[in-house]
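batch_manifest entry 22 of 60
target: Sulfotransferase
source organism: Xiphophorus couchianus
requested by: lab member K.T.
priority: normal
notes from requester: please return tokens only, no post-processing; we will run our own comparison against the previous entry in this batch. if the run fails, retry once and flag.
--- input ---
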Amino acid sequence: MGCGGCRVRLNFGKVLSKVSVFLTMVLIFTYFFYCLTGLCDSAPRTLYSQQGADGGYDNVDDRSQVLVDLRIPVSNTYGTKKLPNAIIIGVKKGGTRALLEFLRIHPDVRAFGAEPHFFDRFYDRGLEWYRNLMPRTLDGQITMEKTPSYFVTKEAPSRLCTMNCHTKLIVVVRDPVTRAVSDYTQTLTKNPGLPSFQSFALKNSSTGPVDSTWSAVRIGLYAKHLENWLQYFPLSHFLFVSGERLVSDPAGEMGRVQDFLGLKRVISDKHFYFNQTKGFPCLKKPEGSSRPRCLGKSKGRPHPQIPSEVLQRLRDFYRPFNQRFYQMSGQDFGWD
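--- output ---
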């Protein structure tokens, strides 16, 4: 009996050993298959965003944070990673996230979802690092990214031209007064104890001139920023998208964008509906989805009440800059 029990235990041990070896081989085979098919490219990459001197307000958009985990999904193993053909370079709080999400409907557009900040923060990491962030594309598809702070970064035009002076550049612009209030509102949401809008916008509180060194005001000096870019890129390389029309007529504005990028007009009225609650267009429910796609809760926030005299002083301040921008861009955006 004792020896019989030993033999049973011995045989059972051999079975366990064989099962363990089999499972190990399955795991090894699965791992090699995973890597050989290219899915290892989907490993997470980490970028560290930089805060401005005012504690994180300067050049930080809704999706930025001190540590941003950029996960790069690779939906297939075909195609190659290429440097962008087109970039949305600005402006913060102008509607750049909406534009990118609308463009991603197009089958010939592959866009990096996060903001790489290569030409303003991570330029020292090199073009190969930048290229590896991009999604894979097939022949006939274009690669895109968006980082709104490029438009207001002095070094960005020369750096981007060093990569490719033929890159197509898209700038989403919005009434600079409304944009500044939206910018402030974003920061106020994160820091409820923030001083009043006018304490930042005007020197000496409400009695002094407009403070153009405050980032929320400075970003709206579109003509000044464009002058910097025109030293490296001809005007024909730019498309200026109206942030207001992107809300009131998204299909019409997207038609202009598709034409500029040399794409077939695929995105049309059938893709949009107006969300009355958010006051913003959303994408209709795609096939296979249970609900429509709207931008996050941070989009369409109500703005705080700003004294009308403060807003008027800002309008007066921006007027000559707006007129200059209309002349340079060849478009009258009707902000005055």
